[in-house]
């Protein structure tokens, strides 16, 4: 098993189904921790545009998290409804998880620890921090919340 790839990590979708990350092999993946009550919440619109523009070669995965200012207090049903009603989200949304601290989900352990991803350490500073993964499940880079989803920093890897 290639531990420098994220394909071995298990996470559930917002409706409780297992997501097999290797289903996205051959596509890049943007993983972003999301929240419904954040100043950056309008980035859902940009994330949807990014997904719509590049969906032949990109999967966007939103990961709800309530660790920053308790800005994602909702249940799975509330989060799903919010995303669809307000932003027409059709990209993948996972279960709500911890992205830092003692309860950190294995996906975020991989994203933030160089010894796991083979590239670099980071810490999740706030909601809507983005991680870019290549077509083989390998770490490319991460971008803080201020980087808009359609930013050239991200799209240059998709063109």
UniProtKB/TrEMBL annotation:
One of its GO terms (biological process) is response to oxidative stress. It comes from the Eukaryota. SUPFAM superfamilies: Thioredoxin-like. Keywords: Oxidoreductase, Peroxidase. The keyword Amino-acid biosynthesis does not apply. GO terms for molecular function: peroxidase activity. The active site is at residue 38. InterPro entries: Glutathione_peroxidase (IPR000889), GPX_AS (IPR029759), Thioredoxin-like_sf (IPR036249). It holds the Pfam family GSHPx. Belongs to the glutathione peroxidase family. This is Glutathione peroxidase.
């Amino acid at each position: 098993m290639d531990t420098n790839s994220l394909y071995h990590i298990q996470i559930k979708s917002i409706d409780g189904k297992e997501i097999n990350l290797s289903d996205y092999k051959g596509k890049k993946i943007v993983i972003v921790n999301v929240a419904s009550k954040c100043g950056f919440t309008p980035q859902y619109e940009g994330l949807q545009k990014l997904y719509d523009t590049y969906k032949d070669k990109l999967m966007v995965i939103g990961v709800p998290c309530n660790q920053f200012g308790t800005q994602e207090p909702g249940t799975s049903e509330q989060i799903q409804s919010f995303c669809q009603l307000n932003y027409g989200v059709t990209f993948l949304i996972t279960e709500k998880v911890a992205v830092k601290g003692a309860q950190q989900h294995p996906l975020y352990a991989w994203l933030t620890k160089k010894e796991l991803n083979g590239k670099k350490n980071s810490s999740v500073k706030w909601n809507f921090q983005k991680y870019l993964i290549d077509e083989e499940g390998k770490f490319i880079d991460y971008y803080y919340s201020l980087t808009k989803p359609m930013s050239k920093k991200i799209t240059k890897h998709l063109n």
